[in-house]
Design goal:
Helix content is 38%, strand content 11%. It is an alpha+beta fold and 87 residues long. The protein has a two-stranded antiparallel sheet with strand order 1-2. The N and C termini lie far apart (43 Å).
C-alpha cells in the first residue's frame, strides 16, 4: 500500500475546488497518508481521491512511498476498568 504527500501547495483547477478536495490537499500537506485515510477523513469517494492524486502526480506535486507497517493498536480500557481477572 502506498502513502502520499504533496511537495508544494497546488493551485487547483475549478473541478477540484470543492470542500472535499481542499480537505484532501490539507491532509496531504501535513503528512504521508493512504488513499483509504483520505476517503475516511474527508468523506470523498474512492473515485474523487484517485482523480485528485492523478492530477497532483501529473503536475509533479505528489510524493509517494510504500506505507510502513502499522503498529499493533493498543487495547483500550473503558470505565469501569477490570482490574482483576474473574474466575
Amino acid at each position: 500500500m502506498k502513502e502520499f504527500k504533496i511537495t508544494a501547495w497546488p493551485d487547483l483547477p475549478a473541478e477540484f475546488r470543492r470542500t472535499a478536495y481542499r480537505r484532501m490537499v490539507s491532509e496531504l500537506s501535513q503528512r504521508y497518508v493512504t488513499e483509504h485515510h483520505l476517503q475516511k477523513c474527508t468523506g470523498a469517494s474512492a473515485h474523487d481521491v484517485t482523480r485528485l492524486l492523478n492530477h497532483l502526480e501529473t503536475c509533479e506535486m505528489l510524493d509517494a512511498r510504500e506505507a510502513e507497517e502499522e503498529l499493533p493498536k493498543r487495547r483500550r480500557l473503558s470505565w469501569p476498568f477490570q482490574l482483576f481477572a474473574s474466575h
